[in-house]
DNA sequence: ATTGAGATTTACT
DNA sequence: GTAAATCTCAATG
């Protein structure tokens, strides 16, 4: 890959400024945005906000660790973590520096490099190539190597797009302990939005409640 | 369409 | 040890 020309300062300033707001305000701005890496570009269709040290659903809730250190840094960088023993998930760090917030990138539509994305995910139909947080990182070839990447300088690039027409919100996916906040945001009626089941009930014998 | 098991790191009780 | 910001495969309605 060739070196890209330095981004113009207006673009960089604008992006950093937009991302330094609270994550639940940044999240809808990310919808329709373009994320590029490894020859593939994805148009973001679904994100989730995780807010600062006060959010029990956030990886930053219990303080800084080796894994989540990037969330404590400046906005506009990528936080990539490894989970369930096999998957990577990516967040855009947002909020003011020192306040660990981020937006989990849950799904997108591949708009460039679709052949590469198909090679990385041979069993997926095109709609499913980046439909889900771990699928999205696989399609874009993002790993812990890219943890901390500056989104204004590549190799991982983010460009905000036109605001999308309709945005829907709902509870976040996969959390069990956290109070529900309607901090999942997606492009209304977009077919590439993930449709994952909610978090499983407790282990056999017990039930989560009525 | 929906269900359940399995894969196996990181962080915490 | 257990649960987690998950996904794939196989079996089933």
Automatic annotation (TrEMBL):
Which Pfam families did the record assign? Pur_DNA_glyco
Q: Which InterPro entries does its entry note? A: Formyl_transferase-like_C_sf, MPG, MPG_sf
What organism is this sequence from?
A: Nocardioides panacihumi
Give the family this protein belongs to, as stated in its UniProt record.
Belongs to the DNA glycosylase MPG family.
Superkingdom of origin: Bacteria
The cross-references to NCBIfam families, in alphabetical order and at most eight, read: 3mg (TIGR00567), PRK00802.1-3 (NF002003)
What is the protein name given in its UniProt record?
A: Putative 3-methyladenine DNA glycosylase
The keyword Cell wall biogenesis/degradation is annotated on this UniProt entry? no
Q: Which UniProt keywords apply?
A: DNA damage, DNA repair, Hydrolase
Is Kinase one of the keywords UniProt gives this record? Answer: no
* Primary enzyme class: hydrolase
EC number annotated for this UniProt entry: 3.2.2.-
């Amino acid at each position: 890959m060739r070196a890209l020309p330095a981004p113009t300062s207006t673009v960089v300033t604008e992006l950093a400024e937009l991302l330094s707001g609270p994550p639940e305000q940044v999240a809808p701005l990310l919808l329709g945005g373009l994320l590029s890496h490894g020859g593939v570009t994805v148009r973001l269709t679904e994100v989730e906000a995780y807010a600062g040290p006060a959010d029990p659903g956030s990886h930053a809730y219990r303080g800084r660790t080796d894994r989540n250190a990037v969330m404590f840094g400046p906005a506009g960088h990528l936080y990539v973590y490894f989970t369930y023993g096999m998957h990577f998930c990516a967040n855009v760090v947002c909020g003011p520096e020192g306040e660990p917030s981020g937006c989990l990138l849950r799904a997108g539509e591949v708009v460039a490099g679709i052949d590469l994305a198909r090679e990385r995910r041979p069993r997926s139909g095109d709609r499913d190539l980046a439909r889900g947080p771990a699928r999205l990182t696989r399609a874009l070839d993002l790993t812990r190597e890219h943890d901390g990447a500056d989104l204004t300088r590549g190799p991982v690039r983010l460009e905000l797009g036109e605001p999308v027409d309709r945005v829907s919100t709902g509870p976040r996916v996969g959390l069990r302990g956290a109070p529900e906040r309607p901090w999942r945001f997606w492009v209304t009626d977009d077919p590439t939005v993930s449709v994952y089941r909610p978090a499983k009930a407790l282990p056999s014998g017990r039930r989560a409640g009525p």
